[in-house]
Amino acid sequence: MRGVRLLPSASRPAQAWKNGGGVTREVARQDDGAGDILWRVSIADVREAGPFSHFPGIDRVLAVLEGRLLLDFGAGRAPVLVTPETAAHAFPGDVPVSGTPDGGPVTDLNLMVRRGAVRGAQLRVSPGLSSLSPNPTAARLLVAAGEAQVTCGGETYTLGRLDALLFAPGTTAPVLVQAAAACWLVDIVPPADADEP
């Protein structure tokens, strides 16, 4: 279907973290006219505890696809536990935070958006059959934690583990998801709509 693009996990090269502490694989991104990130979605494997990279002017939303991750923001705040069953956790990309795997390796899904220019959110889609209402003002990304069949506009797409579908702004067809494991729906509101309520 026009406006829908399959993004296979096998096509993503590993990239070093900004702080040198590991690797991530970029799923999709859009830059502004100056070459800076407008929004970016990536998947990272967290094997050991360590600080997150510092991203001035960026807001982040983090979901966990596999494992359990403790986010520590310091300053006497209790750590936040993020798992595949919890909601995604939003936080500024320019505050100190470290992540600690709890009980084994973690695979997480990161959304980064340029503060004041773009808004973003992540929504967990439960296993089984789900119908997603259109959001034509947003770029949307559906990331599968396991196998899934996705139907949109009369076409069906087969997703394997960590494969994704990118829906361009303006896509109005309903989306039907049949998934063996949870999926995550990422919505990115384009710059022209960023100031709308």
Automatic annotation (TrEMBL):
Coiled coil: none
Family annotation (InterPro entries): RmlC-like_jellyroll, RmlC_Cupin_sf, Uncharacterised_HutD/Ves
Domain of life where this protein originates: Bacteria
Transmembrane residue ranges: none
Name assigned to this protein: HutD protein
High-level lineage: Bacteria, Pseudomonadati, Pseudomonadota, Alphaproteobacteria, Rhodospirillales
